[in-house]
Amino acid sequence: MPIAAYADLSDFKLYMADVGLLTMKSGIAYQTVLSTIEQDNSFLGALAENYVAQQFKANQIPLYYWKNDNTAEVDFVLQLGTDIIPVEVKKGKRNKAISMNLFAKKYNAPYSIRISQKHFGFDNNIKAVPLYATFCITK
Q1: Topology of domain 13-136, per CATH?
Q2: pLDDT, tens digit (0-9, with 9 covering 90-100), for 93-135
Q3: Over the range 55-81, which residues count as b (16 or more CB within 10 Å of their CB) and which as e?
Q4: What are the Cα distances from residue 59, in Å, to 53, 62, 109, 116, 134?
Q5: Which residues contact 61 (CB under 8 A, 6 or more apart)?
């Protein structure tokens, strides 16, 4: 702590400032974005992650992520007071969070946050937050 001291500036993600423009520029069909049917489309996951990044920036939350030497990656890592919280973003309702659980165990996170299409909840030290309510997460 602070997590800013551990940031690796040579490893970063880029997000577009506007999800609507990202959707338009991608050429993805609007029906695909608006469909309630679960689809195996990795771009929808990237779109959801970009949306969360946009909401966090609006709430002045610094954007950090974590990955290990293998394939584990946590979409966002927040510092809320003295707590370091992993945040996983899922595009749909099916959501396994193997990387988030690995991070939580390794760094003794008091809880984790999963942002998805599921309703609010708290189970197994995971706070569930619906995508539409991402703006509720503040520092």
Answers
A1: Trna Endonuclease; Chain: A, domain 1 (3.40.1350)
A2: 666 778 888 889 988 999 999 999 889 999 989 999 999 999 9
A3: bbeeeebebbbbeeeeeeebbbbbbee
A4: 10, 9, 22, 19, 10
A5: 78, 137, 138, 139
Predicted structure pTM score: 0.84
How far apart (Å, rounded) are the C-alpha atoms in residues 19 and 40? 20
> Domain extents for the chain?
13-136
Side chain identity at residue 20, one-letter code? G
Q: How far apart are CA 11 and CA 30, in angstroms?
A: 32
**Triad 24, 63, 32: Cα angle to 5°:** 25
* 28: CB partners within 8 A, 6+ apart: 43, 47
Q: Which residue has the tokens 């996170």?
A: 109
How far is Cα 10 from Cα 131, in angstroms, rounded to an integer?
29
pLDDT at 36: 60
Q: Looking up tokens 């029906």, which residue turns up?
A: 31
Q: Pick the closest to residue 2 from 60, 64, 50, 57 (CA basis).
A: 64
Helix (H, G, I), strand (E, B) or coil at 35: coil
